[in-house]
Amino acid sequence: MTRREWLALAGAAAGIRGTGKAFKVSAPTAPVSIARCRSYNEDIAAILKGMFEQLGGLAPLVRDKTVTVKLNLTGSPGLRFEGRPLGVTHYTHPKTAAAMVHLLGEAGARRVRLVESCWGTSGPMEEYLLDAGWNVRSLAKMAPRVEFENTNARGKGKRYVRFKTPGGGLLFPAYDLNQAYDETDVFVSMAKLKNHATTGVTLAMKNCFGITPASIYGDDAGMDEPNERPSKGRGVVCHFGKRQPSRSAPAEIDPKSSRDPGYRVPRITAELVAARPIHISFIDGIETLAGGEGPWNQGIRYVKPGVLILGTNPVTTDAVATAVMGYDPCAPSGRKPFEECDNTLLLAESLGVGTADLNNIEVRGLPVKDVLFPFR
Fold first, then answer.
1. Which domain holds residue 60?
2. Worst-scoring range by mean pLDDT, 6-20, 72-86, 268-282?
């Protein structure tokens, strides 16, 4: 980023904080809260509680409800960057997860279910978390009823549920997902503030690319029926489109469409968020990676932006987070950070999920200019 680009962005960011007046927009909007948090040793629960209060409180959203929390545990637990703990680079940090679960229980959630399509396995999620260094027993005590579900296959629920893409879809008309994503009242995405090699940024929306079960959309998915013991990722089906998902699930709308991952992955992400709406978006930027989403990327670096971002609309939340990273959330394909891909935020906006226009988003707590942390 040149000095001129940085100054231009900083000037725009100065006007992001809203006035509290109603906005006239075609896509839905919702306020976003920003808070400073420089260390995982701070009282994250207290900070997060204050952010929820800025958005109207947590209890009205979750009291007496089942809440499903999608963690970000991308890649094998054995892959680490510079030997650092997974939670300070590319995984959800155990302390942010514990704070969220504690607050959900305190706010009266009837059940909290932690989910992830754990990479390369259909085994118990608890084992995957233990491999990642989590204290599962302690986490399970953070709320009255805490459950864990690996959604990479049918899992404990024994069935899939079809989620139709509004408007017929951009790439797929519908997705078959683990029933945990259906048997819930509130859906939470817990993401890290990161770049992504294929989508430019990976935030609350891109985190939900991982809700697709590898049993159906994985490289070793069954041809006719799901492979209930998947052991690979989703590159062949989702990223490159070299084969279709299991025939038990809907095939692509147009098999002759682009096979470029920069075309496919943003569309799949936008469709999934439209089909399985996110009610709470949380983005951890205390410590993270810049330049890519995980240790498998070249040119990544460890950074400490020291910020937390929270919202009730995934597009508005991701838009503010993208601005915090030093980018224009409405940038077209070919411009930073979407140099080699289409803009997922604009695709989700086109599906009616939310607005990516910073002029139509009210920021509460700290203004963007006070936490601006250029990622490139």
1. 3-371
2. 6-20
DSSP per residue over 201-270, as a string? EESTTGGGGGGS-HHHHSTT--SSS--SS--S-SIIIIIS-SS---TTSPPPS-TTS---HHHHHHHHHH
- Per the structure, the count of domains in the chain is 1
pLDDT (0 to 100) of residue 376: 82
Got the DSSP string for 167-205? GG-SS-SEEEEEGGGTS-SEEEEEEE-EEETTTEEESTT
Predicted pLDDT of residue 7: 39
Assigned domain for 376 exists: no
How far, in Å, are 65, 156, 292 from residue 59 at the CA level? 10, 28, 35
CA distance 321 to 329: 9
265 assigned to some structural domain: yes
CB 102 within 8 A of CB 56: no
Q: Residue 350 gets which letter from DSSP?
A: H
Residue 20 has pLDDT above 70, yes or no: no
- What pLDDT band is residue 26 in, cutting at 50, 70 and 90? confident
- CA distances (Å), origin 169, targets 149, 166, 209, 273, 274: 27, 6, 15, 12, 9
Whether 288 maps to a domain, the answer reads: yes
Adjacency order of strands within the sheet including 363-365: 146-150, 111-116, 66-70, 186-192, 280-285, 307-311, 32-36, 363-365
Per-residue pLDDT, 173: 98
pLDDT at 326 over 90: yes
Contact 349, 25 (CB under 8 A): no
**247, 264 in Cβ contact below 8 A?**
no
Tokens of 304: 């400490």
Contact of 285 with 202, CB cutoff 8 Å: no
Q: Average pLDDT of the chain?
A: 93
Q: How far is CA 362 from CA 21, 172, 216, 217, 300, in A?
A: 9, 33, 39, 37, 32
